[in-house]
Amino acid sequence: MSTNTEPALYLAAVQWQDEEPSLEFRVEGSELPEFKRANELDLRFRVIADRPRRCIGTVERSKDGTNSVPCDLPAVSLRQCEKCQTKDNIAAANMHQAHRRGPEAISKPMAAYLTHPHRLYAAIFRDGSTKVGTTRGSSGGNRLVEQGAWYAKYLAQVDDGFMVRELEDLVTEELGINQAVDTRKKFAGHLEPLSNQELIDRLDQLSNETEGLISKEIGTRGVLLGERWSNPRTEDPMWSDLIAYPAAINQGAHEFTIQSMVGRLAGCSRQGFEENFLLDLQPLLAHPIETGDFEIDEFVMQDSLF
Ligand SMILES: [Zn+2]
Fold first, then answer.
1. N or C: less crowded end of the chain, CB within 10 Å?
2. pTM of the model
3. Hey, how many other C-beta atoms are within 10 angstroms of the C-beta on 33?
4. Residues 108-132: pLDDT tens digits?
């Protein structure tokens, strides 16, 4: 039985702003989120096993962009209540089908969100996985850092989110480039990365093929960009020397310092250990946690890690 009467905390999201990560927490009984800068953040917490998980809420899209909508219902799926899950599923389907169905067939706020300049990009991850993707807005943005891309190239800017998805599908159909990369591949890439030069070369080759294809399609509705992007961590030595965090983050008691983040993956250190650890924060989302003075679980280090 838990004797702690403090309100529980919940990690609701990893948020990026100006390419800087922060962790969004919710406090039991409160509507307001609490943000903590993720870099150099000391965390000491225990997952409360006998309290329900809480829904992480959802994201709404409108002409002004995206807006996160909190929710305090218990989570029934992994991270969301039924209502938010359904809302997200509909939004994802709308977004995916928008260019095939047309603006009339989707919700007004979603159509307004898409009626705005968008860019098409190609990105590469450290294991060598590549993807083609789209982002709203004609400069900046957090889409690449939040996914944890290592290098990318903005290929083109077009008038709206409908046209950009036509181009994206064309690239997938003609060149076989995926539109998503599994987190397990991203994770593995940090443990055994290809060299930065190899990744740059591969991305250049992919970008050349893609630009050749889309330059014919783009017509008067957009321009080619050819603008390079690299993750702020590409020269950070810590990200070349990581081992997998040797414990499950969604149970037990933990203490570590997040040094920096790539997407939702955190590079962490722990007192008493020389190694730096790679940790996926997503499995912790929605779980009730508490802080306090309790014993921290010991790491069981496997021989195979050395
Ligand atoms: Zn909800």
1. N
2. 0.93
3. 17
4. 888 889 999 999 999 999 999 999 9
